[in-house]
Write a structure and sequence with these properties.
Layout lengths: L5 H6 L1 E4 L9 E4 L5 E3 L2 H9 L2 H10 L4 H8 L13 H6 L21 E11 L3 E6 L2 E15 L3 E4 L4 E6 L5 E11 L6 E11 L2 H7 L14 E9 L13 E7 L3 E9 L1
Antiparallel strand pairs: 1-2, 2-3, 4-6, 4-13, 5-6, 6-7, 6-8, 7-9, 8-9, 9-10, 10-11, 11-12, 12-13
Pfam family, one: DUF3237
InterPro entries: UPF0311
């Protein structure tokens, strides 16, 4: 079993072979870029005296055994943590920056979401294609619809379609393709590709497929999330070609309604 702090030491260095003829590995500190022979004890001693490392630990990992050793002279014994499963790590939040990354350059910009489009589409009854190796397959065609946004408004051209793939737990993957027509004179036409998942408790998802009960379902009891991309050759709307949107939707008896947020 490794000594206390060995994991912190190894995480703070990257190992490499300086020359092909070298028999021993070298180690470079990710925080100050110093290079030394690979030796855990000497690497630990280096970290105890490395200001960039100690400052990073104070900010991002104040419980670091190396930091406590540098501050108090002796580390506080700690229980070895149990390895968390992936879903537990996800539910407890992002673990933080890669060690040393922040100290070597500017932080990665955080994207923002801006509400940009609201869209409603009336649907024909679904057509069941049958059970496939991936799940139950359905096709749904679009009757019509309308939309408005920060950059325009208009209608949904009849004839769009959506492919649905229903998993064994009733989670449903949707893949839609349709065309928006603007109210300009002359109008512009914008093709839309939209994919995502409708997920939730099986009993809720089952109710969503019943047109006589779907309007009684609380939209917060399930998740209907998608991402959207658009394409057009119209000079007035070329900025849409490079945009990205994520959406949240609700299903009703005769239509679906989406709010789309632009990622900026």
């Amino acid at each position: 079993m490794g000594r206390l702090g060995d994991a912190d030491v190894h995480a703070a260095f990257v190992e490499f072979r300086a020359k092909e003829t070298d028999k021993c590995m070298s180690a470079q500190c990710l925080y100050c870029q110093s290079v030394r022979a690979k030796n855990t004890s000497r690497q630990r001693q280096h970290l105890l005296e490395c200001p960039p490392y100690l400052n990073a630990m104070k900010e991002h990992n104040p419980n670091s055994s190396i930091l406590e050793m540098a501050t108090n002279g002796t580390p506080t014994p700690a229980m070895k943590p149990t390895k968390k499963r992936d879903h537990e790590t996800m539910s407890n939040g992002f673990p933080g920056d890669i060690p040393g990354l922040v100290s070597r350059g500017p932080p990665v910009p955080k994207p923002q979401l801006e509400r940009d489009i609201q869209l409603t589409v009336q649907l024909n009854p679904k057509i069941s294609v049958g059970k496939t190796i991936y799940g139950d397959s359905n096709w749904v065609s679009f009757i019509s619809g309308h939309w408005h946004s920060r950059w325009g408004k208009g209608t949904v051209v009849p004839g769009g379609q959506e492919k649905q793939l229903v998993a064994h737990d009733l989670s449903t993957h949707v893949d839609s393709n349709f065309i928006l027509q603007t109210h300009d004179h002359p109008p512009a036409y914008i093709t839309v590709s939209c994919q995502g998942w409708r997920v939730g408790p099986p009993e809720i998802l089952e109710t969503l497929s019943d047109t006589t009960k779907v309007d009684s379902v609380d939209p917060k009891s399930y998740s209907f999330r998608t991402y959207l991309q658009m394409e057009t050759g119209d000079q007035r709307y070329l900025h849409l070609n490079t945009g990205m949107w994520v959406g949240s939707g609700i299903k009703r008896s005769a239509d679906v309604v989406f709010d789309f947020y632009k990622v900026v």
